[in-house]
Design a protein that fits this description.
Number of domains: 4
CATH topology of the largest domain: Serine Threonine Protein Phosphatase 5, Tetratricopeptide repeat
Shape: extended
CATH superfamily of the largest domain: Tetratricopeptide repeat domain
Order of helices and strands: HHHHHHHHHHHHHHHHHHHH
Largest sheet: none
Protein name: Tetratricopeptide repeat protein
Keywords: Membrane, Transmembrane, Transmembrane helix
């Protein structure tokens, strides 16, 4: 052994020297190297590759299906012998993703509560923490108590995370197919990882756009010299027309809406949110009802950004003004006119508030005065009763604007209890 080592010493030293020299560079550029390796790997297998995506999804599904029958894993048996109720000792209860999600939400809402106050009562376990999957494990006629939520969640989390990993790997090959993000969503809530849902749908959105862009380039249907924004407009137009059979406009639009409606955008930066709203407004342009709703939401986004840079208040005012144009939707047959009038009032009020933030108080007051004849749409005369939050915001804004203009007596005449 020593002789072999001595004979190859110069090669070993050469390898060590090369490694010592290149290691800092590799460490500094590891993300780029991994990205290039992944690109080469995907190119070798073909991308997108639905066959590989479906195989990976099937593996994840198999793991979850196997857990739905319960089990008697040795280590789990020992753990549950000391921590579980009499009817679940020595048994892993079947996997119910809805119950895992409920456990996650329950303990997140109680994260500042002492553990001994979280112990469930017999009635709570029987009524609130059961599952149809548990019934087949209980002797006929016996009441099945639900598990301790934390123990139940811990008993399945490793398997659920393994399935999630398969679904995320499938996302690399699924391209414009929506199946992988939906699978990710099905387990992300249960594993207390809602950010994975956002990752899944955002990746689907970008992969769909990249797929269409590549197709248009190959078919030489993409004009040269376009900016990034112009290229995206061409891509969105192609998706909306469903130019390629592999791409579904409905799937793409669902991916956009899920990013906002499902996750609440909590993990987005405001500027990322604007990119999503821009895409959504392009797709809902023909639906006046949805167009007005998302114009208002985009206005709220710009209003939030105005806290960092005043110019965004001007953009917010423009969005709110467009959102208040209810003539776009008033002729729809099944429109809820009272709700539309409330939307108009709130949009105009937010436009006035945007000008107030810009210190353009005269313009703000002009809009506020135009709302006086429309107070009937939000006060006690409105259909559905008084809209207290909107009315309170209106009076507070009016009072603030009047005081900024030095009209203190008029401001003081506005009651605070409205």
């Amino acid at each position: 052994m020593n002789q072999i080592f001595r004979e190859n010493l110069k090669y070993i030293l050469a390898v060590l020297i090369v490694w010592a020299i290149t290691f800092p560079w590799i460490l500094r550029n590891k993300d780029t190297i991994l990205a290039k390796f992944t690109l080469a790997y995907n190119s070798f297998f073909g991308y997108p590759n639905p066959r590989i995506a479906h195989q990976l999804i099937a593996k994840g599904d198999a793991i979850l299906e196997g857990r739905k029958d319960g089990g008697t894993d040795f280590l789990q048996t020992i753990n549950q012998f000391f921590s579980s109720e009499e009817n679940t000792k020595g048994t892993i209860l079947p996997l119910d993703l809805a119950l895992m999600e409920k456990s996650c939400l329950y303990f997140r809402s109680k994260e500042h509560v002492e553990d001994h106050f979280l112990e469930l009562t017999w009635r709570e376990k029987a009524k609130e923490w059961g599952s149809p999957l548990f019934l087949r494990m209980a002797p006929q006629g016996e009441l099945t108590l639900g598990p301790n939520p934390k123990d139940y969640w811990n008993s399945h989390i490793e398997a659920v995370l393994t399935a999630l990993d398969y679904y995320k790997r499938a996302l690399r090959f699924s391209g414009p197919e929506l199946i992988a993000p939906k699978k990710i969503e099905s387990v992300a809530w249960a594993s207390c990882r809602p950010s994975e849902i956002l990752l899944g749908y955002k990746t689907h959105m970008l992969e769909t756009e990249n797929f269409v862009l590549k197709k248009l380039t190959e078919l030489e249907k993409l004009p040269s010299g376009l900016s990034a924004v112009q290229k995206r407009s061409v891509v969105l137009s192609s998706i909306k027309r469903s130019d390629f059979s592999e791409v579904s406009a409905n799937d793409y639009q669902e991916s956009l809406l899920r990013q906002i409606l499902l996750t609440g955008m909590k993990n987005f930066s405001p500027r990322e949110m604007d990119d999503i709203y821009e895409r959504i407004l392009y797709f809902v342009g023909a639906d006046e009802r949805e167009y007005l709703k998302f114009k208002f939401r985009r206005g709220e986004l710009f209003f939030q950004l105005g806290q960092e840079e005043d110019t965004y208040y001007k953009r917010a005012a423009t969005e709110f003004k467009e959102a208040s144009n209810i003539q776009l939707a008033s002729e729809i047959e099944d429109i809820n006119l009272p709700a539309l009038l409330v939307h108009e009032f709130e949009s105009k009020m937010k436009e006035a508030e945007s000008y107030y933030k810009l210190r353009e108080n005269s313009q703000s007051l002009k809009i506020i005065d135009s709302l006086k004849p429309k107070l009937r749409n939000v006060d006690e005369r409105s259909v559905g009763g008084k809209k207290d939050d909107i009315l309170k915001s209106y009076h507070n804004l009016t009072r603030s604007v009047l005081r900024k203009l030095g009209r203190y007596e008029e401001a003081d005449e506005i009651p605070f209890n409205e």
